[in-house]
Amino acid sequence: MDKALGDDGHRAVPPGERSELMKRIFSGVQPTGNLHLGNYLGAIRNWVQLQSDYECIFCIVDLHAITLPQDPDELRRHTREVTAAYVAAGIDPERCIIFNQSTVAGHSQLSWLLGCLTPLGWLNRMTQFKEKAGKHRENAGLGLYAYPVLMAADILLYKATHVPVGEDQKQHLELARDIAGAFNRRYDLAYFPLPEPQILGAATRVMSLRDGTSKMSKSDPSDYSRINMTDDADTVALKIRRAKTDPEPIPEDVEALEGRPEAANLVGIYGALANLSRAEVCRQYGGKGFADFKKDLSDLAVSVMGPIGAEMQRLVSEPGYVDDILRRGAERANEIAERHIKEVHDIIGLLRP
Ligand code: AMP
Ligand code: TRP
Question: Which of 64, 100, 111 to probe ligand 2 with, by most ligand atoms within 8 A of CB?
C-alpha cells in the first residue's frame, strides 16, 4: 500500500499541511489599467480587513490580462500600478504575499493539469466568456476560453479556503469548486479544499456612472463611467456631477429605489464609502435633490479615495520599491506552489525521475 494513505483509505494530507488548510485567502486583480471604485469597494478594501484574520495571498494576475491583447509597456506599468494600489489601500506586504502571477510557474502548470479534467460543457456556461468573446466567438483565443481554469489553478495552487471577490466572479468561483471536486473524486482523496467565495461589503457590484444597469468596468470606453483610483479631486467632482440620475429626489424609503438603477447606484456608493446602509442614506437624504447629494458624495469620495490615489502615485514613482515587494512575494508564493505541484504530480502519476 502507498505509505501516504491515511486511516480512512484516502490518501492523507501531508504533515504540516493541516494547519495551512485552516484559513488561507487568495484573490487577484488583472493589470489591465483604470483601477476604479468598483475594484476598491468590491474587492481591495475588503482584503485590508481580512489580512489580520487570514493568511493572505494577493496576486496581480498578468496571465489573465493577456487573454485579451495588451501593450507590453502598458502591461508592465499596470502591474506596478495594481501593486501600488494594494499597498496604498493598506495591504501590508510583510504580512501578506503580494506577487504577479507569471513569476510563479505553478499557475500555468496546474492550469494544464486541471484543464485535463474540466469538461467543455462547464466552460460553455461561463457568461464572462460569452460577453468578452462577443459575436465572433470563432476568433476568441483559447486563453480567453480557458480563463476560468487558470483562475481555479490560482486558488487551488495554494489550497486557498476563502476567495474575496466582487459579485461578477461568483460563477468562476463555483467552477473552481467544481474543478476541485472533480480532482478529488478522480483521485479519491480530499486533496483540494473547496474554496468559499467571500462576496463582502455594501458594494459588491458598483455600476457605471453613465448607465446604472451595466457594471463599472476598466474597459468601458467612457472615462466618465467610472471613478479611477488615481483621479484627482476635480475629476472626481466633475464625474459625479455628470453622473446620470433621474428627475425624482432621493426617496425616504429605500424600497423606492427599485426601478431607479442610477439613483440606487449613487446611494449605494455613498453608503459603501460612509459605512452606512442604503436605508440609512435614504433616511439622511430623503426628499433632497441630486444636486446637494452629489456635492456631498463627491466630497466623501475625495476624502476616502484622495489619500489612496496620492499614495499610489507616490509608490509608482518608486518602481524599485514596488519591484522588491513583487520579488519577495514571488519567492514566498513559489515555496508553497512548488511543494503543491510536486504533490499533485505524485497524485496524478507524473514521474519525477
Ligand atoms: P477585475 O477588474 O476584473 O480584475 O476585477 C478585480 C476585482 O474587482 C474582482 O474581485 C472583481 O469582482 C472586482 N470588481 C470589478 N468590477 C467591480 C464592480 N463594478 N463592482 C464591484 N466589484 C468589482
Ligand atoms: N478573474 C478575476 C477578475 O477578473 C481575477 C482573478 C484571477 C481572480 N484569478 C483569481 C480572483 C483568483 C480571485 C481568485 O476579477
Answer: 64
Torsion, Cα 234 210 31 179, to 10 degrees, reads 150
* Contact (CB, 8 A) for 132 and 144: yes
Pocket test for ligand 1, best of 70, 168, 172 (most atoms within 8 A of CB): 168
Residue 253 structural domain: 230-315
Q: 160-196: per-residue pLDDT in tens? A: 999 999 999 999 999 999 999 999 999 999 999 999 9
Point out the ligand nearest to the CA of residue 40: 1
Q: Is 154 in the same domain as 247?
A: no
Indicate whether 124 pLDDT > 80: yes
Give whole-number Cα distances, 165 to 45, 46, 149, in Å.
Answer: 10, 9, 17
Tell me if 2 is assigned to some domain.
no
In this prediction, residues 189-207 reach a mean pLDDT of: 94
Among protein residues, the one with the nearest Cα to ligand 2's atom 15 is 29
Domain count for the chain: 2
Q: Whose CA is nearest to atom 3 of ligand 2?
A: 29
Are 138 and 176 within 8 A, CB to CB? no
Residue 223 in any domain: the answer is no
Residue 111 lies in a domain: yes
User: How far apart are the CA of 294 and the centre of ligand 2, in A?
Assistant: 32
- Answer yes or no: is 193 within a domain: yes
Phi and psi at residue 69, to the nearest 5°: -60, 135
Share of the chain above pLDDT 90, in %: 91
| 147 and 178 co-located in one domain | yes
196 and 148 housed in the same domain: yes
- Is there a single domain that holds both residue 174 and residue 304? no
